[in-house]
Structures are given as structure tokens and as C-alpha cells.
Amino acid sequence: MWTDYKYLGLVFISFNYQRGEIQKDRRLTMWLAVVLGVLPLLGWLLWWWNDIWYGLVTASLRTSKGGTKLPPGYMGLPIIGEMFTFLWYFKILKRPDDYINLKRQKYGDGIGMYTTHLFGRPSIIVFSPTATKYVFRDEESFILEWPNVEIVGKTALVAVHGKKHARLRTFVSRSINQPEALRRIAHIVQPRMISALKSWAKRGTINSYKEIKKVTFANIGMFFASFEPGPTMDALGQAFIGLVSGIRSYPLNIPGFAYHHGLQCRKTSVTIFREELERRKKNIDDGNAKPMNDLMDGLMKLKDEDGSQLSDIEILDNIISILVAGYESTTLASMWAVYYLAKYPKVLEKLGEETMSLKKSNNKELVTSDEILKMKYTMKVVDETIRLANIAAIVFRTTCQDVNYKGYTIPKGWNVMLWVRYLHTDPDNFNDPMCFNPDRWDALMAPGTYQVFGGGSRICAGNMLARLQIAIFLYHLSTGYKWELVNPDAKVTYLSHPKPEDGAEIRIQKL
Length: 511
Prior knowledge:
Blueprint: H1 2-58, H2 83-92, H3 97-107, E1 113-118, E2 121-126, H4 129-137, E3 142-143, H5 149-152, H6 162-176, H7 179-203, E4 205-207, H8 208-225, H9 231-247, H10 258-286, H11 295-301, H12 312-343, H13 345-362, H14 369-373, H15 376-389, E5 395-399, E6 403-405, E7 408-410, E8 415-418, H16 420-425, H17 463-480, E9 481-485, E10 492-493, E11 499-500, E12 505-510
Parallel strand pairs: 2-8
Antiparallel strand pairs: 1-2, 3-5, 4-12, 5-8, 6-7, 9-12, 10-11
């Protein structure tokens, strides 16, 4: 009998063991089902979430007359969007044009637009000349919105729209871009260029980016407000570094963050320029005013057709905004000119023939803006430098209403990113686009393929000033010096602006 109980106990234990194994198997099967079914579904949802949300939900709720179909593309992961892909091509691979090439291979050229999600917002990439022209011209639907515009000033040219923009643009353009203003500025900038070049030759080896930046800032201080090198310019230089960083930062107005620091630097900059403005106004009231022939003087004197003048804050905001827009871009363009001319000796030789011819006939240390702008090959070198340098790779606009373009909807409030860099590096627009070839400018460019200064009424108000400064610099450089790149194979970084990793370090000496 004891044996029977023992046998029954063993059977019971065996049964419970088997039942436990079965339950384990069921749990394992359940988890496998989760892993093989639910997780891939979650992964799929994450991968396509932005496309689902913006494409099916957001777009379908709109009442656009042209429908709700978005341009082709991929919008990436939630919040992150395509930023990893963007950074992969721009920062890791250092092949920025392949970002667009990849999309062209996948989606075709279509209407010249792709849907994406970059910099935290749903966006439309515009890469074709036709589509770019369309966006630039439709200024009622696509408006310019600078990031953190309060740092440059809410009454600056880049911040206002409509009639205010037209009025302000007239003032600013007459102050920096008209023939008389260019003649005055050409005379102001040359002494510092000449002095800097002599200093570079004595040192032998220099970082051209850093040294050109110093000269550019000194000249800006002079033709903006007649500031001589000294404590005021030093303070302004430090403030400007923080101001630019603040524009590019996330808007957190908390001590320790770049945006907060940028606002403080704006206050410093405004204080410096306001003190000078008040000093000049007092001299006018006292009858002791002297013509300064600088940007501040020009903005103070200008009147529109109705006889009205700019307010103090309009003067200050526009001086700061023009400084922001022109300082870094002029520096980079001049540096790239030095770089390309060192890489293309035949171009430098041809440039030297033209500039030396002017120097021999002129027999003066300084040249005039009229003389420089008549030098055809020099200006072709400038235009080719700006095209290939692509200092502003992307121009931003924001849609202020739903827009229908060739059957596709661009929703209200989306970023529109005009990929102007690709216009200049696309073989469909320029033959052998990565070759530095100033002679390509002997032929007319196809409409809409050259957009380095933007387009429409928002085209850069200082475009002639920028071209003139670079041309004058090249005149003095090519007629008095020879140079070579220390690292001709230096890699190029593309963010936030393109430049060689070594800042185009050169060995320079007098001819």
C-alpha cells in the first residue's frame, strides 16, 4: 500500500512538472509573439510616425483647394525627423550634395520639392531652379523669418514685411549699395587691407580665415560708425561673438544658455552704437556736426519720398543686422578666394595680368570702386568664388497660408528650405560644377540657377558691397604677394559654414 501511495505521488509530481513546463512554453510563446509581432509594429510606427501624422492626419484636415497631397519624401522619426541623416552627410561623410542626390535617386526630380522634417519642424526642401524662383517670387505666401529675430532687432530689414520692408530696403540700399556709397566705402576699407597684407608677409605663415576676419571686422567698425581700433571695437567684437551664437541657439532665456547671452550681447552692441548716435545728434543740435561718411551717417540723413526719416531704433537695428549678415559671409568668401586661387594657378595668373595692368596704369596705392567694377575677369573670379563657396547653403522661408504647387500642398506654418547650394553644384545647372572656372561666366546662366544672394525683394541689400570688398582685397593681394596653401588637401567642414579645417592656412610673401 505504501508503494501505491509512493507511485501516486510520483505521478502527481510528474503531472505538475509537465503542467509547469507547458505554462512556461506558453509564456515563452507569448513573449515571442510580442517580440516578433508587436515590437516590429512599434518600430514601423516609429519609423513612419511623422509621415502618418503629417501626411494622413494633419494634411487630411486641411481645406486646401488643391487637395491634401504632400510632395514626395520621408519625414523621419518623431521629433528627430531626418536630422541624423542630414548630419550624416554634412558632418560625418562631408558630402552634403549627396543628401539631395539620395532623394533624387529615390523619388525622382518631380516638382523640385521633397517633404522632410528638419530642425524640429515639418519642412519642404526646394532644390530645382523653377521651384526656387516660384518660392522667391511668391512673397505673400512664403515669408522670411529669421531665428531669434529679437537679437538682431524687430525693426531690422530682415524682420519686417510689406510696405515697411520696401521703405526700409530703400534706405539701407542707398546707404551701402549705390554707386556713391560704394565709392566712399572702397576708400575706407583699403588702408586696413594694405596694412594687414604687409603684416602677413612679415609673419610668413597665417591662418587666412582668422586674419581676414580681423580685417573685415575692423573695416566694418570703420564704415559702419567710424570706430577706430581700441577698447570700443574690442568690446563690440566680444559682444558680436555672443550675439551670433545666440541667433543660432535654442531660445531659452535662462542665464547660462547661449540665447540669454545673445540678448545680453545685443544690449551691449546697442549701447555702443546708441552712444555714438546720441553724440552725433548732440553735435547736430550744437551746430558742431561733421560729415562722417559712414553707414550711421547715411542712415541718419536719408529721407523717403514723404520726407520721413528712420527712427533711432531702426538705425540701430539695421546697423546690427547688416553687421551680422555681412561680417561672416564676407570673411568666408575672401578666404575661399585665397584658397581657390592657390589651387588654380592658371586662374591666378590670368587675374594677375588684369590687376597688374590696372596698377601700372593707375600708379596709385588705392583704387576706386569704379575701376574695380570694370575689371571683368576679377569680377568673374569673385562670382565664381561665391558660387562654389556656397556660404549660405540653405535659405529659409515659412508658409503663412496653404499653398498649392503643381497639384501638391505645402501646408501653412511649415518650413520651406531653399537648397541653394544644390543649385550651384548640380551638373544639370553648371558644367563640371566643382571646378573653379571663372570663364564659365562668359556665357549667360540659365534662369534661377545662381541664387547666392537670394531672390525677389529679399535679395541681399548689400550684394554689390560684398562683391566690391572681395574684388578690392584680391586686387591688393594679387598685385603684391604670392602664397601657397600649407595643407592643400585639408578636409572641409560644412557646418555651420563651409571652410577648410585649418582655416586655409597659407605661406605668404611679397612678390
